[in-house]
Amino acid sequence: MSKNILVTGSGGIGGVNFVNALKIAKREYIISGTDFNKYYLELPNLDFKYRTPRHTDSKFLEKIKEIIDKDKIDFLHPSPHSEASVIAKEIDQINTATYLPRYDIIIRDKLQTQEILKRNGVPVAKTETVNSLDEVESTKEKFRDEKVWVRMKSGAGGKLSLLCETVEQIQDWIRIWVNRGIAEYSDFMIQEYLPGRNIACDSLWHDGKLIASFTRERLEYPFKHISPSGITGTPTVSRIVIDEKVNAISKKAILSSDSRPHGSYAVDLKGDVKDNPIVTEIDSGKFHTTTALWGIVSDRLGLDSKKNLADYYSAIGMNL
Questions:
Q1: Fold identical between 3-100 and 126-192?
Q2: CA distances from 58 to 32, 97, 263 (A)
Q3: Which of 102, 162, 167, 198 is most open to solvent, judged by the fewest CB atoms within 10 Å of its CB?
């Protein structure tokens, strides 16, 4: 018997991969998809397409609820982290199955997460905050390496991040975005530069129990030559790795940030000068853009269907 699935933000890279992975699953899915961009809606292989307002619009949730009722949706997957937070906040209004962490876990920013992990003995990147440009010089002196990352406390895809070497560079970078009205001084944090491997560990949890996980190393980003930070969110090349140390640290990080994890969790790690894995952030409730991609690869290689994490995730969410 087919299942009706709704994927919000389905036109993004993560949404497209999620939909494509479900389409090759052994289970039959009828997939409805939404996006605020009419052009992006042409990318995923959907059975039904709906254009919605942006997630910041009060009408967004009403449109989602309308689609759930109209298409008799069995399971809702909000693809972007921003839309997952809206859904989780109003979860009592959602008349279908979901598989999400609690709202307060999803919206926790990078700095709050770092502080929690540090208290629990999880290795994290040294992080400091600034509330004005006058604080930048004294803050930078706290770091040993000349290079530091300047980044936002929240947001994905390397949002407003830049690798800086001088106080002036840091001040200029922050000043640009504050003057444009895009950010406040207090939105930024300064984080140590870690030169080692760029690792992502994705895992599925159910009522506090680890169900499945996989880890990959990001090797190449698209258009990095035209991005100030060299980071553009989604890698063009990555490889699956098996690293028990990374697995153990990621598991401890998730359990430190959420005592009863439930849903999908994405841990980002970078190697230090000795390539020891250091946690840089956790995105709770997020499917990395390539998480579902491995289901497509597994299908082409004739591997176990459980490698299709999009299918596995949806089935768990529906208690199948």
A1: no
A2: 21, 22, 25
A3: 167
Average pLDDT over residues 217-241: 73
> What tokens were used for 106?
């999803």
**Digit-coded pLDDT (tens) for 158-212:** 678 889 999 999 999 999 999 999 989 888 989 999 999 999 999 999 999 999 9
CB 49 within 8 A of CB 39: no
Bridge partners (DSSP) listed for residue 215: 201, 241
- Under CATH, which number does the domain 3-100 receive? 3.40.50.20
Tokens 């993560």 belong to residue: 14
**Quick check: helix, strand or coil at residue 149?**
strand
Task: Determine the Cα–Cα distance for residues 103 and 91; give it in Å rounded to an integer.
Answer: 9
Tell me the CB-side half-sphere exposure of residue 177, using CA atoms within 13 A.
21
Given the DSSP bridges, would you call strands 263-271 and 237-241 parallel, antiparallel or unpaired?
unpaired
Q: Is the pLDDT of residue 114 over 80?
A: yes
Q: Domain boundaries in the chain?
A: 3-100, 126-192, 198-284
The answer to whether 315 and 36 are in contact (CB under 8 A) is no
CATH topology for the 126-192 domain: Dna Ligase; domain 1 (3.30.1490)
Q: How far apart are CA 116 and CA 290, in angstroms?
A: 27
Indicate the CATH number for domain 198-284: 3.30.470.20
What is the distance between the alpha carbons of residues 20 and 2, in angstroms, rounded to a whole number? 16
What is the C-alpha separation between 191 and 148, in angstroms, rounded? Answer: 6
| 134 exposure class (CB count in 10 Å sphere: 0-12, 13-18, 19+) | exposed
Q: In angstroms, rounded to a whole number, what is the distance separating the alpha carbons of residues 292 and 296?
A: 7
- CB burial of residue 2 (10 Å; 0-12, 13-18, 19+): exposed
